[in-house]
Amino acid sequence: MSETRAIVLLSGGLDSSTVLAEAVAQGRRCHALSFRYGQRHEFELEAARSIATHFSAAEHKILDIDLRAFGSSALTDDIEVPKDSLDEGGGIPVTYVPARNTIFLSFALAYAEVSRAREIWLGVNAIDYSGYPDCRPDYIAAFEVMANLATRDGVEGGGVSIRTPLLELDKGAIVRRALELGVPLASTHSCYDPASDGTPCGGCDACILRARGFAAAGESDPALTGA
């Protein structure tokens, strides 16, 4: 019986690293895919390299697509990253990168076709998240339908499925699952706006969600303690 190949979108953060670990644990031959898209820093890409190596990904590609050409996000434009504002409401936050998951999934879909992968795995979450529209279950379901209408594999049979094992987990459950899977959490990076040495800011949405996850799991974050 041949092994199932999977494309895993890997940012280097807690969620995507846990997804890669989950795919490996389920026996997938994983091809990791990361992006240098004009984000504010490269610490997450350094983390992605480390995580891909740790889990012996069959391949790890880092693609350059400069979304600074469009801007309109605090992650790709000269816009201040909001701090301590996660619970303030007010709609979709300025850290949302327009159509980012759609762009990333489209590249992953092309990669899946040429590598004969039947699955695309990603770490979206619809419970403890910042309210991004491209993290919702109905979006993922719609993209999977589109993917199998728009590709040769989808038309000729087989197609691709989108796997989102963290979609309905809270951050505490994600941290616990990461620990069960042996994710080297000290090597992951989540912060949107770190210091020049990579130290997390502690106040952006990503930092707050990560801290809440470790607190809910009753664990210390090794990325902060150095453990």
- The SSE order reads EHEHEHEHHEHHH
How many helices does DSSP assign?
8
Q: What sort of overall outline do the alpha carbons produce when their principal axes are compared?
A: globular
Rg (CA only): 17 Å
Largest sheet: 5 strands, parallel
Q: Strand arrangement, largest sheet?
A: 3-2-1-4-5
- Domains counted in the coordinates: how many? 1
Give the low-confidence spans: none
- CATH class group: Alpha Beta
* Percentage of residues in DSSP E strands: 5-15%
CATH superfamily: HUPs
**Oligomeric state of the chains?**
single chain
Instruction: Report the helical percentage.
Output: 25-40%
Cα distance spanning the termini: 40 Å
Total strands: the figure is 5
According to CATH, the fold-level topology is: Rossmann fold
Query: Roughly what is the average pLDDT, rounded to an integer?
Result: 95
Q: What CATH architecture do you see?
A: 3-Layer(aba) Sandwich
Q: Which structural class fits the helix and strand makeup?
A: alpha/beta
Description:
This protein is of the alpha/beta class and 227 residues long. It has a single domain, classed as HUPs (Rossmann fold), CATH 3.40.50.620. The protein contains 8 helices and 5 strands; from the N terminus they run βαβαβαβααβααα. The protein has a 5-stranded parallel beta sheet with strand order 3-2-1-4-5, with helices on both faces. Helix 1 packs across helix 6 and helix 6 crosses helix 7. The protein is globular and about 50 Å long.
